[in-house]
């Protein structure tokens, strides 16, 4: 496993996001803590040193499955500070108080807002980037072909990019990713991750999963090499249709 630098923190280039372990995405079935624990152990076996969780996952459920932040603080194991979905102004003010190691925000082939203002700022300040939802909340894997495949209760049911005509418009983007995946004998998920890590050594995505097979697939993206032509084609993919969050969630980010 290759590595990325988040400020002065060295982490595996591919991490593991814990949101799905709390049952927020239901296409893989209901909660299964034993399965989640197996996935965490497999990730560690494969060289993953970056496991991301948050109190909002559940809430608290994923932290209870991999240990509490309070215990880590008490043991002196929390040595770096990160922010999530912060605005440029907040990042500057926080960094002036104490060096920030990383910003977590959404970044993927279908969400590239970060490239305009945030990524240049992070690089100016020496802050790493932790992209969440690097697989477009599962859409970029190509596994979801119709909105009906998303179970009731899954929050994607209200996400603008997964609703109605926008869903089918966004399938065109997935097909373009599939074409490149076929060229290098990889999966669409691996292509999406390989494109992300190719954007710089200060970027460490956290694809979320609670299944061993998916952890293995995602971490294997570390070995996928894309040509300059393939990277250029991915850079110019059809933009996603629809906002990345509904109105309520949009109001809570970039603050």
UniProtKB/TrEMBL annotation:
Protein known as: Aldo/keto reductase
Keyword terms, alphabetized: Oxidoreductase
Organism lineage: Bacteria, Bacillati, Actinomycetota, Actinomycetes, Kitasatosporales
Pfam families recorded: Aldo_ket_red
Domain spans labelled NADP-dependent oxidoreductase: 62-237
InterPro entries per record: Aldo-Keto_reductase, NAD(P)_OxRdtase_dom_sf, NADP_OxRdtase_dom
Species: Streptomyces hyaluromycini
Top-level taxon of origin: Bacteria
UniProt-listed Gene3D superfamilies: NADP-dependent oxidoreductase domain (3.20.20.100)
């Amino acid at each position: 496993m290759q590595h990325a630098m988040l400020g002065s923190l060295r982490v595996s280039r591919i991490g593991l996001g814990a949101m799905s372990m709390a049952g927020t995405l239901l296409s893989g079935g209901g909660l299964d803590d034993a399965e989640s624990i197996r996935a965490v152990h497999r990730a560690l076996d494969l060289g993953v040193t970056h496991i991301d969780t948050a109190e909002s996952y559940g809430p608290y459920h994923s932290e209870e499955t991999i240990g509490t932040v309070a215990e880590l603080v008490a043991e002196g194991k929390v040595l770096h500070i990160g922010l999530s979905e912060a605005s440029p102004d907040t990042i500057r003010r926080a960094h002036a108080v104490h060096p920030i190691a990383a910003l977590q925000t959404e970044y993927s082939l279908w969400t590239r807002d970060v490239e305009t203002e945030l990524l240049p700022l992070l690089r100016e300040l020496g802050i790493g980037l932790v992209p969440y939802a690097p697989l477009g909340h599962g859409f970029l894997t190509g596994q979801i072909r119709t909105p009906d495949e998303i179970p009731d209760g899954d929050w994607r049911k209200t996400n603008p990019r997964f609703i109605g005509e926008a869903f089918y418009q966004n399938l065109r983007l997935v097909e373009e990713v599939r074409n490149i995946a076929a060229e290098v004998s990889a999966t669409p998920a691996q292509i999406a991750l390989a494109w992300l890590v190719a954007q710089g050594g200060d970027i460490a995505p956290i694809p979320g999963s609670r299944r061993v097979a998916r952890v293995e697939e995602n971490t294997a993206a570390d070995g996928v090499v894309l040509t300059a032509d393939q990277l250029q084609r991915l850079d110019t993919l059809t933009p996603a249709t629809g906002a990345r969050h509904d109105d309520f969630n949009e109001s809570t980010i970039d603050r």
